[in-house]
User: Fold these one by one.
Assistant:
Number 1:
Amino acid sequence: ALEEFLRTWVESQGLSLGSRKPSLDGYAVILRDGDLITKQDYKDITAWGGLRNHAAHGEWAEVGDRNRVSLMLEGVNLFMRKYTS
């Protein structure tokens, strides 16, 4: 959901990824460079992406902490609400 949110936002702003890979980080860099998100938002997106990647690659020891996962979900939801027009 977060990656789709960022992709849609980048597209709606007419921003280009250039040679960047379409990814959470790629979209976050573009939005940060465009001064559309804060430095802290960028750091949060990077952390959330890391946790998501651990889960996607079956690295269960990295995602076994329910509190950490819950905080990530709350953070993503708050972020998307913050930037929804």
Number 2:
Amino acid sequence: MNETRKYWIKTLLKIVTPVLSNMAEGRLKATMPVEGKSPDRPAVTHLEALGRTLTGLAPWLEIPSSDIEEETERIHVADMARRAIAHAVDPNSPDYCNFTN
């Protein structure tokens, strides 16, 4: 893997890991502050964080890499993403996201 790609992947992981790792463990709402003056922010902030994270990450997750180091990271992040989604749609999870209001 060339140095530019390593830099971009390192930057990508720095951005997405806090959201994915916390939601994958069911603790995003407990650890991520909600900012903004609108009273509806708490209802949508965590879903928005997950949605934006997955939207930006999806192209990288979709295509396997021939580089072993990158592929190992990709598989790990894909696993976190699946676990995060599972918490977002589980009504019994502390990180359950309301998709209707």
Number 3:
Amino acid sequence: MKLKTNNIEADAHLAVPVSGHGPGVLVLHPWWGLNEDIKNVADRLAEAGFVALAPDLYDGRIATTIPEAEEYSGIMDQDTAQDIIRAATEQLVAHDACQGSQIGVIGFSLGGMYGVWIAHAQPEQVAAVVLFYGAGMLEETNTQASYLGHFAANDPYEDADYVAQLEQSLRENGRPTTFHIYPNTGHWFFEPSRPDAYDEAASQLAWERTLAFLNETLR
């Protein structure tokens, strides 16, 4: 699927359930790019009855090492990324298969920051936000969404005190919020392509919690 906005064209992976319709979920990739892990998340969401759309913020680039990921995230233009996410949100809501005028967002690491942002930028369209080891700006927590967070107990990329502040800020703004900390896990514990970090048990539990949350919030 192609996304078009402000003369910018971006690819996106669209997954539709066999029923042909369902609530919409936007999937925002980590700093690796739109790799097979994230496409598989979208496909699994479709198997669970959701219409999932995963936009590519990297113009086709996919990192497999941390230096590559640092390079690609460093050259990514934030305004362009936000334009792409806005376009993805609007096109997902407008898609014939998407039920309802509100969607959910799942953000992984880098994508988590943008998940918090889009819920703040377009509150009338985002009803649910799921964060996988990625936090957003504290000043972007006055939204209309409910939040579910999956965070690693041993994570050099996400400060535990800041995650706690984000959780507190969301609750102070009246947002239903549940953050889970997974013992003995690190950043990327949900992603099979990161064998140094992937934790099958924690990944399965986080997925079950995610589906229950999205079903409760979007259906």
Number 4:
Amino acid sequence: MADKRTALVAGATGLVGGHVVEKLLASPRYDEVIVVTRRKLALSDPKLRQIVGPLDEMEAALAGVKADDVFCALGTTIKVAGSQAAFRKVDHDYVVAFARAAKMAGAARFLIVTAVGASAASKIFYSRVKGETENDVAAMGFDALHIFRPGLLLGARGERRAAESMMMRISPLLNPLMLGPASVYKSIDASVVAAAMVAAAGGEVRGRQVHVYDGMVKLAG
């Protein structure tokens, strides 16, 4: 392919991000996949370039990097982060800093995972932060911004989340009951979200696009 591209990924050690990296490495569309991460991935591939360091220094670490399509799967929970302030630092501040670095890298497309219910007007802190993050990234003016809002993510995590583990066991029984507007809350496998992100990056749609359950499943094929 004459127009092979460079992908840049943050959150590659997470549930969705790990699948994104695997799919990008397997895609003939990309001849280089750059990951910025706090710890080195246990992967070896001639297309893979790893930039390892603290997320606080992400913008400096990415200075001079060039990328076409940028994938952001950074995220945590308030419980794992330890406080609302620490959660906001990861899910808002680091994401916005990564988006700034992506803009400096010349990226045309920015693809980000947030969460169902994300809204800057939400009374729920978690959802409000996600919505504010979406808006702040959108303000940077990427040619295309793809926002993916999954419900409960299914898949094997490196960290233990007891409540989510329980929900993962019962969610297959609940999904068929979620019809119409409620379908956005269906649980979804992280690999499907990742496949949808990579597929969306291959399209020519411009502007701000929001993808929920049905749209992600369709994109993933």
